[in-house]
Amino acid sequence: MSRGASVRERLASGGPAGDERRLADPAVVGVAVVAAAYLAVFFEVTNVVGGTGRTAAVVAVAGLGGVALARAVGERTALWLAGVLFAAGLAGYFLAIPASQRALFTVRSVALDLLALSTGLSVLRLALADVWVLAVAPVPTFLVGYFAGRGRHVAAASVGGGTLGFLVLTGDAETGAAVAGVVGLALAVGLSTLSTPSRRRGHAGTFALVVAAMVVASATVTVIPAGAAAPLGLDRGTTTLESSLSGEDELDVIGTTRLSPEVRYTIESPVERNWHTGAYDTYTGDGWVRTGERSALNGTLAGPPGEAETVDVTVTAETVSGALPAPWKPVSVSGGGAVEVDERGGLRLAAPLEPGEDVTVTSRVLDADPATLRNASTDYPEAIEERYTQLPESTPDRVGERTEEILAAADVESPYERAAAVEAYLRSEYDYSLTVERPEGDVADAFLFEMDAGYCVYFATTMAAMLRTQGIPTRMETGYTPGERVGDDEYVVRGQNAHAWVSIYVPDHGWVTFDPTPSEPRDAARDTRLAEARADGAENVDTEASAPDATPEIEPNETDAEATDDAGASANGTNGSATANASDGGSLGPGAIARLDGTQTGTAPSTATGPATGAEASGSDGGPLGSLPDPETALYWLLVAGLAVAGVRRTGLASRAGRRIGPLLPRRRGDPTADAERAFADLERLLAEPYRERRPGETPRRYVETMRALGADERVETVATAYERAAYAGSVTRSEADAARRAVRGLALERLPLIGRFVR
Fold first, then answer.
1. What is the rounded (10 degree) CA torsion for 239, 245, 246, 252?
2. Which residues lie closer than 8 Å to 125 by C-beta, 6 or more apart?
3. d(Cα 698, Cα 68) in Å, to the nearest integer?
4. Side-chain half-sphere exposure of 332, counting CA atoms within 13 A
5. Residue 252 burial (CB < 10 Å; 0-12/13-18/19+)?
């Protein structure tokens, strides 16, 4: 047997030489790109919840195992092995979940969770998301390695593409990953099909065009999960602050925002507090996620573990609303139909309230003085500490280092004092602005070191991350500030009152609120926006009680003047902050800032937190005039434009359009001979459709005479005469060439459906 025949036999049998050739095939590049795309998404999840190292190790073993088994077992066996691996992984995940949560698992709940995952439920919302990734990620990687090792590159890329498609549906795979996956899949399919150099050369243009079209399509349809994101490069306008804080279980930190002055609620409450609607536990680096599920509220919830005051709050909807704002901590609800509660104690109506409908919420409001909170225990429940000190693995060390510097300068010890010091630092060192550019990378890190202004989401996110670096359980909370007080116990709450703040967990007392956002410029921005809306005659920005001509009589409320939000809020109730002077233990006055040296200032310096004005105040501007598009947007539209040009050229549309439009254009060259020749070429195209094309060997004169006999206009002879003089005599005059051009243009215009009626 010859050496060549031996090699061919080894290739056919899947021997070592065959394996090397299969893995060296150009199509492997496409498989690798698809695999890298979906693995990058999995690692983004583990970056947030932990476990990247062990997941990488397990995935590597699975992929190499698939390659090793490619020549040892058949495809049916490999699929069985993948199924067993998947079942074992899910079983391990199920057993890792605490028994109390496993008891809630039913066939129906699992089916609903799978449906939710395919319609935008992030993997991050799953219990023990790190364990879930560890259980799931090795399976497709094993199959990708196996099929690639057998030379089945299209199958390998399809497995990777299917996995990535699932992650697109969950919303975890962003545009970049989706585009990379499409490119990889196209490369694998294309390079497997175009296996010979001659076929590659013959179809390279078409292949490139198909890849470009797939990239554009994937970048445009990455909006599937929730429809909230715009296709790459498409600006849907500036989002309101309220809508960005109403992202249900996921909150993305955005850039420039604006305020909505429409009235949302009228709230009757004996206490003036921030109205809580939700809380988030998992920080992703560019946003927040609340994990766990909701359940029906049956009976009364437990209140905070420490001293608390019971208050009844009536919430009347002024617009359709499913949220249920109330002072923390709500324990029971009457009216409004079914109510759901999540694992953090946040409430939501199962069916939205219609305008005019009201609900009464009973809350247990924390009633503890700062001295008590400063001296509280630091013996955190294990579940609280684990969940609310989480940070992405990629969080820069300098966030914790800067926090330690601040706390050292403040000379504070207890978690309560540390939170107060960080709150004071952020209030005094950063400006308030609704017009900001969304930073790249970790939001807290960017705000601390690269930005000098932001709005509540930036302040709260940064404070939460800073405190978590110190092991203080902290969560991000959203809702509304008290709003406009229009009576003794009545408040009008508008969309522009949407707000974000933080709470730290204090053992034996529960969640204590802090608000790092500077209050004066924030309130000034809201006042400016409301004044603009009223001046423009906007609807639904006032109730009868809040109208500018209304003059409600408000009696001073001594309880509110002395009360603090969960720990001692500012006396005017605008901040809902627990800031306290770390040196003497007293509550700060309205708008006061605690300096790091322990002394107390008055209001924050105007240079740091002066009132926002103009577009910055209202947030109505999408950004500075003349700003350049971001690179991602520019790349998207450049690709779209290139695809359009390539498609037009590849399909011949450009040449056909030129033949249609060319005769209509009043074009003229310097050379009459060239004009005459072009005029006759245009005439041939005009006559070909209603009559016939000019036959090979048929003279121009003979062709024109035949067309005249078939009914063509006599002006065709003018064109033929000019052409003959140009082609054969070389003595056509400018006037003859112009006459030929006008004749052709007139014939072309008459062919148009509408214009032809007016030019005859």
1. 80
2. 249, 250, 289, 290, 291, 292
3. 70
4. 9
5. middle
Q: From CA 325, how far away is CA 493, in angstroms rounded?
A: 10
Q: Where are the alpha helices (DSSP H) in 226-381?
A: 241-244, 370-374
Where does 689-731 have alpha helices with state H?
Answer: 700-709, 715-724
- The pLDDT tens digits of the residues spanning 615-642 come to 444 444 444 434 455 555 555 555 556 5
Nearest to 63 by CA among 23, 105, 123, 119: 23
Strand 257-258 to 239-240 pairing:
parallel
CA 283/CA 461 separation, integer angstroms: 8
Q: What is residue 464's three-state secondary structure?
A: helix
Give the pLDDT band of residue 394 (cuts 50, 70, 90): very high
* Residue 389 to residue 497: CA distance in whole angstroms: 28
The one-letter code for the residue type at 489 is D
Residues 6+ apart with CB under 8 A from 430: 447, 451, 452, 453, 454, 459, 518, 608, 609
Burial readout 636-655 (b: 16 or more C-beta within 10 A, e: otherwise): beebbeebeebeeeeeeeee
Task: Give the pLDDT mean for 573-587.
Answer: 39
User: Six-digit token pair at 177?
Assistant: 């990953």
Task: Report whether 171 contacts 203 (CB < 8 A).
Answer: no
Strand partners, 257: 239
Q: What's the rounded Cα separation, in Å, for the pair 245 and 470? A: 26
Side-chain-side CA neighbours of 563 within 13 Å: the count stands at: 22
pLDDT tens digits for 466-525? 999 999 999 999 999 999 999 889 999 999 999 999 999 999 999 999 999 999 999 999
Least confident among 217-231, 281-295, 341-355, 705-719: 217-231
Mapping DSSP to helix (H, G, I), strand (E, B) and coil, where does residue 321 land?
strand
Cβ atoms of 428 and 417 closer than 8 Å: no
Please tell me the distance from the alpha carbon of residue 450 to that of residue 333, in angstroms, as a whole number: 44
CA–CA dist 266, 243 (Å, integer):
19
How confident is the model over 541-560, as a mean pLDDT? Answer: 69
Confidence of residue 579 (pLDDT cuts 50, 70, 90): very low
Rounded distance between C-alpha atoms, residue 200 and residue 213, angstroms: 19
Nearest to 275 by CA among 15, 78, 491: 491
Residue 430 backbone zone (phi > 0: left; psi -120 to 50: alpha; other: beta):
beta
Pairing of strands 453-454, 431-432: parallel
Beta bridge partners, 276, equal: 326, 479
Residues 6+ apart with CB under 8 A from 55: 42, 43, 46, 130, 133, 134, 137
CA separation (Å) from 412 to 207, 418, 422?
65, 6, 11
Contact 264, 544 (CB under 8 A): no
Half-sphere exposure of 584 (CA within 13 A, CB side): 7
pLDDT digits (tens, 9 = 90+) for 53-74: 999 999 999 999 999 998 899 9
